[in-house]
Write a structure and sequence with these properties.
147 residues, Rossmann fold, 42% helix, 5 helices
């Protein structure tokens, strides 16, 4: 099992990005984190990853917020699933919405899981650690494109 993972974070709140980084900094794994605050830049990053695999590290996992400026998280997820090179990328929706409509739409668009962001600092940190344990220690992920 690799000890360094590539993580794509698509989140418009820089504070939440910092919290995710902080939670993962205590890990026994290391991470190359590509953080994007808009759907457009995240999709451009993924396009670069699949077109020039030597210049970008394709993510092992994406953490995607639904409420983004410009392209919504739903639209980003839809585009990820539409492209055969990114379709198998595991995507965790992590958003503040607990609305049944948002949850259902995310799963209809083939999100791998849906997590509501905790408001409490310790709960937030614990949630990131649970995501890390599940996705990087428990499950077997698909091969990266070109692997």
């Amino acid at each position: 099992m690799p000890t360094t993972f590539d993580l794509l974070i698509v989140e418009d709140n820089p504070g939440d990005i910092d919290l995710i980084r902080e939670a993962l900094s205590e890990s026994s794994f290391s991470y190359r984190i590509a953080a994007h605050t808009s759907g457009e830049t995240a999709l451009a990053y993924l396009k670069d990853c699949v077109q020039s695999p030597e210049s970008q590290s394709f993510p092992d996992l994406a953490i995607l917020d639904l409420n983004l400026p410009g392209l919504s998280g739903r639209e980003v997820l839809e585009e990820i699933r539409r492209n055969s090179r990114t379709a198998n990328l595991p995507v965790v929706i992590m958003t503040s919405s607990r609305a049944p409509k948002d949850i259902d739409e995310s799963y209809q668009l083939h999100a791998n899981c849906y997590v509501a962001k905790p408001l409490d600092f310790e709960e937030f940190m614990g949630t990131i650690r649970q995501i890390e344990q599940f996705w990087f220690q428990t499950v077997l992920r698909p091969l990266k494109p070109g692997a």
